[in-house]
From TrEMBL:
Cofactor, free-text remark: Binds 1 zinc ion per subunit.
Binding site for NAD(+): Q108, N109, V110, D111, G225, S226, S227, N251, Q252, G253, L269
Molecular function terms, GO-annotated: histone deacetylase activity, NAD-dependent; NAD+ binding; zinc ion binding
Enzymatic class: transferase
Enzyme Commission code(s) on record: 2.3.1.286
GO cellular component terms given for this protein: cytoplasm
Function comment: NAD-dependent protein deacetylase which modulates the activities of several enzymes which are inactive in their acetylated form.
Highest taxon above the source species: Bacteria
Residues annotated as the enzyme's active site: H126
Protein name: NAD-dependent protein deacetylase
Length: 283
């Protein structure tokens, strides 16, 4: 085991480096990994400022008005997500995968930034905002197609709404929402939903099973930027613990998984993961 210089015992960072150096790392990432790309989280600093109330599946499916509000907000918010670029944290994860140390990536995020940084085989636990699914015929289509159709159906709307909402994700007025026209499935006229798992909706069982299997076989489960408040991600931490797979957490602030963790680093992800890659290179 590597000793921290002068400290007389291994620091958390050195323990993390040891665990990752042994390989078979399965990453479980969350919203905190993308805040440095300018996408707010829910429960960290950026989320608290925004006071976001997430859409539930039941509300979305049960109310045409809720869907209009969702798509109107999302029509502006999507530009922000589509423009976001991966940060040093995403790049470090992709680099660890290229080196064969990371064998699985379970992303709770829906922003596609792991892949944009070059990671492959990413399991999108909660789906992705860059696809749209028809609730009636089940067809999946690119978000860019819907974006084009929404622009055509709402000439000038985004520019007018954005005048009042400079950050692109602020709450729209009732008038702005009422003026927004949503479009239906081009194939069957059915209801369109982003291909993401909303609160109140279950992740498909085969996807969950794949993640349990990955977790069981892991050398370490590495949690990056997730408060683990949502059971959907937390269950894999509990599963790792049950199977004696060590859990390492890098997250600013407490998480629900802290009691299961062998190593906890309360530190910013971009700098920490970049240092980790450098540390492993110098060994
Ligand atoms: N980018 C996205 O796709 C996005 C954005 C918001 C929410 N969501 C989804 O909503 C759910 C929210 O749960 P969650 O646990 O992922 O997020 P969360 O908001 O509950 O927790 C994020 C954690 O990351 C920490 N954090 C923020 N920036 C950090 C940084 N730079 N370095 C280190 N730590 C940092 C925060 O303090 C917080 O504890 C998930 O499904 C999530 O993916 C996705
Ligand atoms: Zn359809």
């Amino acid at each position: 085991m590597t000793q921290a210089v002068g400290a007389g015992r291994a620091t958390g960072f050195e323990l993390l480096a040891d665990l990752v150096a042994d390989g078979d790392v399965v990453v479980l990432s969350g919203a905190g990994l993308s805040t440095e790309s300018g996408i707010p989280d829910y429960r960290g600093e950026t989320g608290r400022r925004r006071r976001a109330t997430p859409m539930t599946y039941q509300t979305f499916v049960g109310s045409a008005e809720a869907r209009r509000r969702y798509w109107a907000r999302s029509h502006l918010g999507w530009r922000h997500v589509a423009r976001a670029a991966p940060n040093a944290g995403h790049r470090a994860v992709a680099e660890l995968q290229r080196r064969g140390l990371v064998t699985g990536i379970i992303a709770q995020n829906v922003d596609g930034l792991h892949q944009a940084a070059g990671a492959t085989g990413v399991i999108e636990l909660h789906g992705s905002l860059d696809r749209v699914r028809c609730l009636d015929c089940g067809e999946r289509t690119p978000r860019d197609d819907l974006d084009r159709r929404l622009r055509e159906a709402n000439p000038g709307w985004a520019a007018r709404a954005a005048e009042f909402n400079p950050d692109g994700d602020a709450v729209l007025t009732d008038e702005e929402v009422a003026a927004f026209r949503i479009v239906d499935c081009a194939g069957c006229g059915g209801v369109l939903k982003p291909d993401v798992i909303f609160f109140g909706e279950n992740v498909p069982p085969d996807r969950v099973r794949t993640c349990y299997d990955l977790t069981e076989r892991a050398g370490v489960l590495l949690v990056l930027g997730s408060s683990l408040t949502v059971m959907s991600g937390y269950r894999f931490v509990r599963h790792a613990d049950r199977h004696a797979v060590p859990v390492a957490i890098v997250n600013q602030g407490p998480t629900r998984g802290d009691g299961h963790a062998t190593v906890i680093l309360d530190a910013p992800l971009g700098a920490t993961l970049t240092a980790l890659v450098a540390r492993l290179t110098s060994r």
